Amino acid sequence: MKFLSAACILALLSLTACSTGSDSDSESGKTTLTVFAAASLTDVFADVAEEFNSTEPDIEVKFSFAGSSDLVAQISEGAPADVIATADEATMDTLAGDELLAGAPEIFASNTLTLAVPEGNPEDIETSNDFTGKDLVVCAPQVPCGAATNKWAKQNQVSLDPVSEENSVTDVLGKVSSGQADAGIVYVTDVARADSAVEQVELDGAEKVVNRYPAAAVGASENTKEADAFIRFLRSEKAARLLEDAGFSTP
User: Fold this and answer.
1) Any signal peptide, and if so, which residues (predicted)?
2) Does the annotation place 110 within a ligand binding site?
3) Least crowded by CB within 10 Å, which of 127, 164, 167, 236?
4) CB neighbour list of residue 46: distance below 8 Å, 6 or more residues apart
5) What average pLDDT does range 141-152 have in this prediction?
6) How far apart are CA 150 and CA 171, in angstroms?
7) Phi, psi (deg, nearest 5) at residue 69
8) Does the annotation flag 221 for ligand binding?
């Protein structure tokens, strides 16, 4: 009996040690919020997270940036996320239709297409009529910027013959800024954050093709309270100021 008692005591001590480690983590008071966000939000969301943390110091925000369609696919396959912010409503509707969201998406920003060309515009591309024979790069059709590009081309009767279709707008921008492409259709915010690496050429009629950015809490999230707090902050005056400084429009 004494042997059994000693074994039980050892087991209890072991459990207590494990429990203490868990309590130590909880005592830190920090909740990690995983946010899946469209690639075009990469820079501005770093500033948003910093400002959000000043008002919610107990929430640590971690981001995963990619093309919106890729993010939706990851969540559909069970990837752990608390919030998703996409570059258009159609992509978000996929998750809503599959009942993978915890609530209705909230619109917090919008973006407009433009044309990026390398510094100095070596091919003298001034309008969409100058695309012929040039190395044009666009987003793939399943990506929000690609869907918007196709819509713009159809509305303006522009024939696109891209040499490459990329899975995110940042990839398009990268090919233009590195000189691998003569031009790329991106968002106005992408040109703004590229500093002088690229130049902007306006696309006629682009103002009629505006992508609205929604954010929503993911249904499988265990941090819905914190997710809702982040989404509310995205619609705050502080966040709107940051988004507008980055070239976005806000509600």
Assistant:
1) 1-19
2) no
3) 127
4) 63
5) 96
6) 18
7) -65, -35
8) no
Residue 53 is encoded by which pair of tokens? 């943390």
| Amino acid 143: pLDDT | 93
Backbone angles phi, psi at 154, to 5 degrees: -70, -45
pTM: 0.84
Is 40 annotated in some ligand binding site? yes
HSE (side-chain half, CA atoms, 13 Å) at 201? 22
- In terms of CATH, what superfamily is 30-110+212-245? Periplasmic binding protein-like II (3.40.190.10)
Q: Are 44 and 189 in contact (CB under 8 A)?
A: yes
DSSP letter at 197 equals: S
CA-based diameter of the chain, in Å?
Answer: 92
Structure-block tokens of residue 195: 């500093």
Q: Which CATH class, in words, describes the domain spanning 111-210? A: alpha beta
Mean pLDDT of 56-66: 97
Which residue shows structure tokens 């396959």? 77
